[in-house]
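Structural prep section.
Before we set up the soaks we want a predicted structure of the protein with nicotinamide-adenine-dinucleotide in place, mainly to decide which crystallisation condition to try first. Input record follows.
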Amino acid sequence: MATGRTHRPATRSRGIPEATVARLPLYLRALTALSERSVPTVSSEELATAAGVNSAKLRKDFSYLGSYGTRGVGYDVEYLVYQISRELGLTQDWPVVIVGIGNLGAALANYGGFASRGFRVAALIDADPAQTGKLVAGLPVRHTDELEEIVERNQVSIGVIATPAGAAQEVCDRLVAAGVTSILNFAPTVLSVPDGVDVRKVDLSIELQILAFHEQRKAGEDLGEAVARGTLPKAAEEAADRPGPDGDVPAVMPA
Ligand SMILES: NC(=O)c1ccc[n+]([C@@H]2O[C@H](COP(=O)([O-])OP(=O)(O)OC[C@H]3O[C@@H](n4cnc5c(N)ncnc54)[C@H](O)[C@@H]3O)[C@@H](O)[C@H]2O)c1
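Run finished without errors. Recording the tokens verbatim:
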């Protein structure tokens, strides 16, 4: 679901391309599901289908990890889970702070999937004094005055920003100055960060806009096919012939 980009070169220092790194979590999710069902081995085709990736791409990705599978047997599921987890840095615990504990921040704090993937929510921080001390997901909300101390004491390197857009840059600057080097930004704004700090942006409305674009295309194709088959309902046919607001384009455009 995460969109956006990191401020890093396309290839990481260990020679794994950024596009491969972006697919590793997809493999890991599929492999974890297999592991939970005690499936011992998996072919590249099966795993590629489960991860929604092309199998040739998967084999290429795994070659960067030095994992080639065994002909006729496939890949060892447990070993690959370990290998990918290690590559993603998930074999260690990552303390995370969430800043902005409104609707979204509270929902993120309550999401159990972070802890099970090695991300421990170390603290919840909000600027509203009325929020301070409230328990959210079992953690007391702390005031932003304590941000630097919390980050330093917990050695937090990952910060999640769920504040309004107008506050996000200032929060980001404070997190970075305190030692955070990776930011997951939910606020609808572009953040400036110094070199060496990774920012990933999550924006569900952008994802919805992309789906809306495809829906519109599909609707256009359906209409075009109906016109070609001569099965266009009468009302739609009239609409397709009617001039649009400019007077020269039909209100409903066939593909
Ligand atoms: N990326 C996405 O897909 C997505 C989805 C929903 C919301 N959002 C964005 O997430 C943000 C939060 O949305 P919400 O619905 O939870 O809003 P909200 O108003 O419920 O919560 C915002 C919280 O941030 C706190 N805050 C304000 N300024 C702060 C600061 N300087 N430091 C720390 N905390 C501060 C407020 O006190 C409040 O508790 C918004 O920017 C919204 O646009 C993004």
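Observations: Residues 99-105, 126-128, 131, 144, 162-165, 167, 170-171, 186-188, 202-204 surround nicotinamide-adenine-dinucleotide (CB under 6 Å).
Flagged for discussion at group meeting.
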